Amino acid sequence: MPSIHQSDIKTNKNLTILSIESSCDDTACALVRYDGTVLAEQIYSQKEHIQFGGVVPEIAARAHLSHLSALVQKTLAQAQIDWKEIDAIAATCGPGLIGGVIVGSSFAKGLALAQNLPFIGINHIEAHALTVRIPNISPLQVNFPYLLFLTSGGHCQCINVTNIGEYQRLGGTIDDAAGEAFDKVAKMLGLSWPGGPALEALAKEGDENMFTLPRPLYGRPGCDFSFSGLKTAVANLLTDYETTDVLPRQFAADVAASFQKAITTAIINRLENAIKLAPNSTLLATAGGVAANQYLRKHLLALAEKYNLPFIAPPMKYCTDNAVMIGWAAIEILHQASKHHKLMNDISMLPRPRWPLSEMSQRFDV
Q1: In sequence order, which residues have a C-beta less than 8 Å from that of residue 67 and are 6 or more positions away?
Q2: pLDDT for res 366
Q3: Which of 123, 157, 223, 261 is the most exposed place for a label (fewest CB within 10 A)?
Q4: List of residues 6+ apart from 101 with CB closer than 8 A
Q5: Cα(45)–Cα(63) distance, integer angstroms
Q6: Are 178 and 227 in contact (CB under 8 A)?
Q7: Close Cβ partners of 96 (under 8 Å, ≥ 6 residues apart)
């Protein structure tokens, strides 16, 4: 199998990556160029889970397998290029739902073998962390180090991003991720799945001061998160309606607004501690599906302004899982590998349900 050598990276400014993402319930493919240009992208947000009110891992894996081939073909057709113009294939190798990760990475490896191309295995969290550095979608030039708040259905972390492969986890969730809390509270309120966007929309109709809900870990040292108790507090508000099929809409809206305020207040407090733990940060960034929440973004912006930091968040479609971030992470990794005079081909990399960011520097060890 071929490898990408540092000379290839330095001289080929049109280096093009075909990338695949399949860590949860979004099946995605993209073609990303060395300068961040997105030549084409396709995404299938799986509808198979709606009737279950949440992601079913086995169904997700089968759906990835069903849709990946067509998505790759559509991506190539959209970009109007053929295989000889592609320099490497990248795919998520973890962390994530292991069935989906196996399907996507195995499919990508098969393409790499068939087309005699290098394969680059990508850490899904690292890809989110680097999304804000994509030149053509970012309004700012993002330099290291920066503080990242990663928030999604499966992850909630404060990360000090100091370089490619160098990530310091300052804090994270000790139980549910923020996105999981949004989805579960939305389900309690009888909203459709995915619950986060539905809850945000309903909260606009409500009074955020109607109910006083706990702010977990508020005021404590460090920047860990906990949302399980907040979720339980919401459930306790609904006990009078346990036998009711449909909640009164105004009541549900007030609960949604109060929950959204409580979780945001807790997040901002924890992030304020994170900023103090990473005093050299050049900006505050956010990524992940919950970063699409406009109420949260408004408060993150206010926090950044309080500490005279620029604030950056990806466009909405790049907050959630996507293949563009996978392709860009591969480009960043290849560029960093060239500095270390490393050849890159991860064809033997195994898919992993867990993959700590602390291990990312190992790929550059000489």
Answers
A1: 27, 44
A2: 55
A3: 261
A4: 22, 23, 92, 93, 94, 95, 351, 352, 353
A5: 10
A6: yes
A7: 22, 23, 24, 124, 154, 353
**pTM attached to this predicted model:** 0.94
292 closest CA partner among 157, 178, 161? 178
Give the distance from CA 177 to its chain's centroid. 12
Residue 103 pLDDT greater than 50, yes or no: yes
Cα gap 159→147, rounded to integer Å: 6
Q: Give DSSP secondary structure letters for 73-110.
A: HHHHHHHT--GGG--EEEEEEESS-HHHHHHHHHHHHH
Tokens for 89, please give them.
């294939």
Contact (Cβ atoms closer than 8 angstroms) between residue 213 and residue 262: yes
Q: Can you tell me whether residue 255 is helix, strand or coil?
A: helix
Q: Which two tokens stand for residue 97?
A: 């739902």
DSSP string, 318-339: HHS--HHHHHHHHHHHHHHHHH
Look at residue 358 and tell me whether its pLDDT is greater than 60.
Answer: yes
What gap in Å lies between CA 327 and CA 211, rounded to an integer? 44
The residue behind tokens 């009541």 is 251
Tokens of 65: 């397998």
Are 311 and 304 in contact, with CB atoms under 8 Å apart?
yes
Residue partners of 237: CB distance under 8 A and separation at least 6: 211, 255
- What pLDDT score was predicted for residue 4? 67
The C-alpha atoms of residue 53 and residue 183 are separated, in whole angstroms, by 9
* Spacing of C-alpha 7 from chain mean position: 31
Location of structure tokens 């960093």: 336
pLDDT single digits (tens) 200-217: 999 999 999 999 999 999
Note the pLDDT tens digit of each residue in 213-263.
999 999 999 999 999 999 999 999 999 887 677 899 999 999 999 999 999
User: Rounded to 5 degrees, what angle do the CA atoms 49, 53, 56 make?
Assistant: 45
